[in-house]
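no rush on this but wanted to send it before i forget. what follows is a protein written twice so to speak, once as letters and once as structure tokens for the fold. mainly i need to know what kind of three dimensional shape the backbone takes. thanks a lot i owe you, the record is right below.
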Amino acid sequence: MSSKMRSLLKRRWRLASVVAAIVIAGIGFATARMERATPTISTAEVKLGEFIDNVDVRGQVKTLKSMVLTAPSGAGDIQ
């Protein structure tokens, strides 16, 4: 083998080694981070039952789309 070919192979091996080291370090970092992660969301016990929630709001209600309805005039009172 010529010296140019050996030099090229050495560079390739060095590059492959550096890339492999970065990948292994990334995997190790991700694994360590996942193991330490604890949920920060508070939880509560769930019970079966009726759920009632009252909401008081003020404002205007506007329609997105309106249409005219026609009905016979002798239909009676609406209750």
